Amino acid sequence: MPDVAIRVRGLRMAYGPVQVLNGVDLDLRRGEVFTLLGPNGAGKTTLVEILEGFRTGWSGEVEVLGENPAHAGDAWRARLGVVMQSWRDHPRWRVRDLLAHVAAHYDDPHDVDELLAALGLTEAARNRAGVLSGGQRRRLDVALGIVGRPDVLFLDEPTTGFDPEARREFHQLIERLAGEDGLTVLLTTHDLAEAERLSGRIAVLVAGRVVTCGSPAELAHAVQAPSLVRWADGELETADPSGVAWELHQRYGGPVPGLEIRRPTLEESYLDLIEEARGTRETATVGGAR
Ligand SMILES: Nc1ncnc2c1ncn2[C@@H]1O[C@H](COP(=O)(O)OP(=O)(O)OP(=O)(O)O)[C@@H](O)[C@H]1O
């Protein structure tokens, strides 16, 4: 089997006059957990829905498990696990019955009770889907997405509404599935800590374009916002805080009074990157439209 699970080149998509994806390139290797990070409206859901085969009208090259999602058939679809932002269609089904019903459509599904246990849903197994809490419902969404033992799992903001314990259990489950079963996972999230914890690689999508892509460590390095150097008589934002500290040391002829160096958090760096990318994009759009 080829190593590439998903391959995207020059993907563009517009809703009417609004260009939502502006030439996206991506490669996902088999067995990796890959996160799409980006602000509201960046195009994450649109991109995921194209990969799932739910959207037409795009241009570019897209292959998911070797097939074009716009033309692939049921056998291909059975190899995908899809978890959408909400699943409200079956409020009267009991949790276990619904999961067992969906499992019956697959050749080699997960054991339903094991899956319920892994997602912390054993106690809710006999409840109707309509009375679950928000977090329980999301966990049921995830269970429905993975019960068929997919090769590729799409998770669109999967932990929205989870409490910290449910979130931790969910992260462990994804790590286990990706590690042991070689599942390829494409996740969208707004949660930087989640992206950092789970992903082999992260792509940041801003205004329909991948502005940076790499491991969490590479990303932290690439998007590093300036540090703040503060001392008794002043402060300075700089990309080279140790250089500034050294110069101050020379200037004072010894220890610098009140010296403090504050490095940006990953979140601050990320927000900085988004602002910068938006600035670039506005210029490009105006230039391109004329
Ligand atoms: N069916 C649609 N028709 C018209 N415009 C749409 C449609 N779906 C999405 N859009 C617009 O496309 C843009 C990208 O939306 P998308 O849902 O892909 O972004 P997102 O990154 O997933 O955002 P969020 O983080 O808020 O979920 C937004 O401006 C949105 O309003």
From TrEMBL:
Its main location: membrane. The keyword Cell inner membrane does not apply. The keyword Transferase does not apply. It is a peripheral membrane protein. InterPro entries: AAA+_ATPase, ABC_transporter-like_ATP-bd, ABC_transporter-like_CS, ABC_transporter_ATP-binding, P-loop_NTPase. This is ABC transporter ATP-binding protein. Keywords: Antibiotic resistance, ATP-binding, Nucleotide-binding, Transport. Residues 6-232 form the ABC transporter domain. SMART domains: AAA (SM00382). GO terms for molecular function: ATP binding. It is found in: Cell membrane.
